[in-house]
Write a structure and sequence with these properties.
This protein is α/β, with parallel strands linked by helices. The chain has 13 helices and 16 strands. The longest helix has 21 residues, at 8-28. The protein binds S-adenosylmethionine.
Length: 384
């Protein structure tokens, strides 16, 4: 696929990041893909999420659900109002990876009973300024509830944790199944460019893939390539630990494990985004290209369960949005033009060929009594 070439100053930035990656490879040998992805996305000052370049919306690289308009936030607000009313006044909302801040702004505006505190935790300090500009569009009394954190809160809280398209940005390890062993797919330097290479998998990856193969007999035959997010269980435990009572909601593209590691999906799920083109070469312009992997939602469910949370719901984005009744917004449109705009947005969010089935929501709860409204209609829990 031909990609539009970046301007010289951005090529220079990417070149600087490449030099750091190559120096590490020259010194230490081939780099595990998770370490490469960590540098490509988060290397201080240079990585994709921390270099201060514009990423979100039509002029960026991708459009997430909250960037499509306000419907997604309105639907989440209904769910969170339900949880907030069960918990009572003074509840807290913690958003992980808030991106442009559009979801925070629209959620705060849409909630009938906004949280007492809206906490944002994002690895990207450079996005904080962008988020603050979105929050400044709110009435001052609402905007004043937003606080930025650099690590999960130490004190426990009751409320909601939300992460939309964050897990897909956690670094993944890539592997290939050989006849009787597991190989780690690593990044090497040929003298001219970055390239794939392989080595015997280190013990943690070897064990994790061994467990997958034992659980899914016949699903990962020799030659099968995929990836696994070894960091997910520890990360999920850390970010949900402060939640005393409430809901942790993770939204992302992904599959239950049996579908993720389906024998037909032999080349994994790694996908890169650059200027609204999806491609599969993670070595193109590191720092300028988003790199992500689909989420194994069964792994997220296991991690939640192991962290003492109840796996309270799992459904598709379409299942959630229609289950919570967001289509009634079309009847409240102010005029025909508004109605057509909302209708187009709803289609993008819910149609199976758009975001409707690819994106899923997993609801992990602690100490809640009521069933979650958005997960009552279409449940995919049995697929986990
Ligand atoms: C694909 S963007 C999604 C942004 C936003 N949630 C949305 O839906 O538009 C991923 C966001 O997660 C942040 N991020 C990545 N890894 C993170 C982590 N481990 N903890 C918190 N935020 C993270 C990035 O800086 C970025 O803001």
């Amino acid at each position: 696929m031909s990609l539009p070439a970046p301007p010289p100053e951005l090529l220079e930035l990417s070149g600087e990041l490449c030099n750091r990656i190559v120096n590490n490879i020259v010194t230490d040998g081939p780099m595990g893909f998770a370490d490469y992805m960590r540098m490509a996305l988060y290397e201080p000052g240079l990585g994709y999420y921390v270099n201060g370049l514009h990423k979100f919306g039509p002029s960026g690289d991708f459009v997430t659900a909250p960037e499509q308009g306000g419907l997604f936030a309105k639907a989440l607000a209904r769910q969170f109002d339900q949880v907030g009313s069960e918990i009572g006044a003074g509840w807290t909302l913690l958003e992980l990876g808030a991106g442009s801040g559009a979801l925070a702004r629209d959620l705060l505006a849409a909630l009938d009973h906004p949280p007492a505190r809206y906490l944002i935790l994002d690895t990207s300090a450079s996005l904080r300024q962008v988020q603050a500009e979105r929050i400044a569009e709110l009435p001052a009394w609402l905007g004043a509830r937003v606080e930025w954190l650099s690590q999960p809160p130490e004190a426990g809280f009751d409320g909601v944790i939300l992460a939309n398209e964050v897990i897909d940005a956690l670094p993944v390890s890539c592997f290939e199944v050989d006849q009787d062993k597991v190989l780690e797919r690593c990044v090497d330097f040929t003298g001219q460019r970055l390239t794939w290479t392989q080595r015997p998998a280190p013990p943690r990856l070897d064990q994790a893939v061994g467990e997958l193969r034992a659980q899914l007999p016949g699903c990962l035959p020799p030659g099968y390539q995929s990836e696994i997010c070894l960091d997910l269980p520890g990360w999920l435990r850390t970010v949900t630990e402060p939640l005393r009572r409430g809901l942790a909601l993770f939204i992302d593209y992904g599959y239950p494990r049996r579908e993720y590691y389906h024998p037909d999906r032999r080349a994994g799920t790694l996908v890169c985004h650059y200027r609204h083109r999806a491609h599969f070469d993670p070595f193109v312009w590191p720092g300028l290209t988003d790199i992500s992997a689909f989420v194994d939602f069964s792994l997220a469910a296991d991690a939640g369960f192991d962290s003492g949370l109840e796996v309270a719901g799992f459904t598709s984005q379409a299942g959630f949005l229609l289950g919570i009744g967001i289509h009634d917004q079309l009847q409240q449109a102010s005029d025909e033009r508004d109605r057509l705009g909302l209708s187009a947005e709803l289609k993008r969010l819910t149609l199976p060929g758009e975001m409707g089935e690819k994106f899923k929501l997993i609801a992990l709860t602690r100490g809640l009594e009521q069933a979650l409204n958005g997960f009552e209609g279409i449940s995919h829990l049995h697929r986990l």
